[in-house]
Amino acid sequence: MSESDAVVVRLSLARVAVVTVSLPLGAFFLCIYLSLRFNFDLSTATHCGVQNYLPSISSAIGEFVPQRYIWRAAIAVHSAPRFLIASMYYSFMQRNLPNIPFYQNAVKVNTFLNVVENIALLGLSFVSSKENYDIHKVSFIMFMVCSEVYMLLTCLLLKDHTKRLGSLERLSFRKKKQLMTANVACFFVALYFFYRHNTYCEPGMYSVFALMEYLVVLTNMAFHMTAYYDFHNHELLVGEWKTASS
User: Fold this and answer.
1) What is the pLDDT of residues 141-200, one digit of tens each?
2) Is 184 within a domain?
3) DSSP assignments along 95-121, one per residue
4) Which domain does 131 fall in, by range?
5) Tally of domains in the chain
6) Is residue 17 domain-resident?
7) Sign (positive or negative) of CA dihedral 95, 96, 100, 102
8) Largest CA distance in the chain
């Protein structure tokens, strides 16, 4: 008896990365647009009662229909490829980092953070703050902590080992550093304007916070999009296993 497998599906991992990020990206802009177009007053209202012009992300994706279902559908569909790409990065980091316990354990921690970030995103997307505030809050905190630490640790691990990388992978690393820096900067600027809004109730401050919040999410998506370069020459194969008699 001889065994052979036939390829049923052949997908470029670069394209998988593009589609995976495009789903939440498209849903994000669509939810913001629909909230501004049809739910402007409710989506931009705050406890201060001052004029604002942009909805927060949680308001745009979780409080109105059909935005809530558009966002949840996009996150649900994109989560499976995210887990696949996390496993791919586990192999990628093991291959390109020294085979010593420190780096191998760090790679496991990094992969864990990537997986938990994805799980937390599912949690905060499917449980809105109005449905269960505690679960939504914990999911949001886990998402932010894991995403920030994951981006930082990824850059630190690859920093001194770029010579092992190919040209596209080095380009990906440079973009990772830039996006990680932009993400952290936008996050702290968002916190500042959130503080200003809650403390002084100034008109428009919540809108600036919302804009910074958008940039935090967009730079996070772009960071994950760098998988396009890291796996540009890789393919995902789905095969049909066949057994034939020799």
Assistant:
1) 999 999 999 999 999 999 989 888 999 999 999 999 999 999 999 999 999 999 999 999
2) yes
3) HHS-SSHHHHHHHHHHHHHHHHHHHHH
4) 12-228
5) 1
6) yes
7) negative
8) 80
